[in-house]
């Protein structure tokens, strides 16, 4: 983790403007092509959830602005971002959070994630690790192919973590597509950075043999 020198930061003016907003997050939803990923995980008998979530985190960690956070009026940059992710409990209706650590190697990520996900299914309390800021807040909505998304908000909480949501995938013109929602704090990033996120994750989704 390191502090950003605000006076010399090229976003200083934008930071000063948007950090004063009561609701500074903006959201962009778009469909991504998961055709090659879906075929690859089926062939290799991998978990689609783990594979797709790994690529979500891989993309987050590859873009500096998604690793920035605001603490006590200062901007910090984390070296690594993990994922706070909801996992359905056994009743199929309620959920718990778990923290999935990011590793650049998918096999290591999957080996670490599997028991954490299993434990979350049986947990009776919410994981307090979700209060960290070296994470993204994320969710999976496998029941709906949404084209917009709004997150629950706690105004004044100081939350500056990006938020990523994956939706129900669907077929269109012979391709499998999945809605993806990305929200960022406007004091730390702009549309150009979210646009870069969508470009990079699509590149990763198109090359599962290299990324997984």
Q: What do you see in this structure?
A:
The chain is α+β, with helices and mostly antiparallel strands. The chain has six helices and ten strands. The strands form two sheets. Strands 2, 5, 6, 7, 8, 9 and 10 form a seven-stranded mixed sheet that branches. It has a three-stranded antiparallel sheet with strand order 1-4-3, with no helix packed on it. Strand 5 and strand 6 form a beta hairpin. Helix 3 packs across helix 5. The longest helix is centred in the middle third of the chain and has 17 residues. It is globular and about 50 Å long. The two termini are 27 Å apart. The mean pLDDT is 94.
Structural class: alpha+beta
Q: What overall geometry do the principal axes of the alpha carbons give?
A: globular
Strand content bin: 25-35%
Main sheet? Answer: 7 strands, mixed
Oligomer: single chain
- Rg over CA atoms, rounded to whole Å, is 17 Å
Total strands: the figure is: 10
| N-C termini distance | 27 Å
Average per-residue pLDDT, rounded, comes to 94
The share of residues in helices is 25-40%
- Low confidence ranges: none
Number of helices: 6
Helix/strand order: EHEHHEEEEHEEEEHH
